[in-house]
Amino acid sequence: MTDSEPHLLVVDDDARLLSLLRRYLADSGFRVTIAGDAAEARANLASFAFDLVVLDVMMPGESGLDLTRALRREGRVPVLLLTAMAEPEDRINGLEQGADDYLSKPFEPRELVLRIRNILQRRPAAAAGKREVRFGGCRFDIVRGELFRGGEIVHLTAAEASLLASLAQKAGQPVPREELAISAQFSGNVRNVDVQMTRLRRKIERDPRFPRYLQTVRGTGYALNPD
């Protein structure tokens, strides 16, 4: 393994599954650190910079959802939730708490690797000649996927940054939800676009109920209206 390989933190209270995932993910080209609960995960997060956290929802003590909310407040490390709860509302709840993706147990290890790689590939690329876009006192760096309000960074998840980059590259133009679901690498899931848009508006708009910059284009999708 080399430092250039993505570094994953895998958190699960099932020791057998944790061991299997560590071996499989390492064989798939990742550096892997494991933790058996949220407390151990926090200790690792304080010591290392991770590219992605694979996180079990149901754990003793602090749950995966609680830790996901905390990670969203503290930074932008992507989170992929693992859970035995497979109902649509459980999945949507996980996304609303800040997760970038959600995989139900039992799962195929190959699918986990694909989902991890899809998240890691959400690195916003700048459109030709366009590095950033400004709106409402905010500045979004399309290349780095970073949003600033004044001189302070506004923490975005990888999924939120990817969606905002897709809109910024076509600033002022309506972008179909289906196109956003593909360009933001949401596996074509338009429902995920809506979830991420709701979260973005809470971070950007003065009143998310009446958005000025991230607008809904009826019958089409969404548009980012810059200054």
How would you summarize this macromolecular structure in one to three sentences?
39% of the residues lie in helices and 22% in strands.
Structure description:
The chain is an alpha/beta fold and about 230 residues long. About 40% of the residues lie in helices and about 20% in strands. The chain contains eight helices and twelve strands. It has helices at about 15-25, 40-45, 65-75, 90-95, 110-120, 160-170, 175-185, 190-205, and strands at about 5-10, 30-35, 50-55, 80-85, 100-105, 130-135, 140, 145-150, 150-155, 175, 215, 220-225. The chain has a five-stranded parallel beta sheet with strand order 2-1-3-4-5, with helices on both faces. It has a four-stranded antiparallel beta sheet with strand order 6-7-8-9, covered by helices on one side. Strand 8 (about 145-150) and strand 9 (about 150-155) form a beta hairpin. It starts with 6 loop residues before the first strand and ends with a strand. Residues about 125-130 have low confidence and may be disordered.
Rg from Cα? 18 Å
What is the residue-mean pLDDT, rounded to a whole number? Answer: 85
- Return the structural class: alpha/beta
Strand content: 15-25%
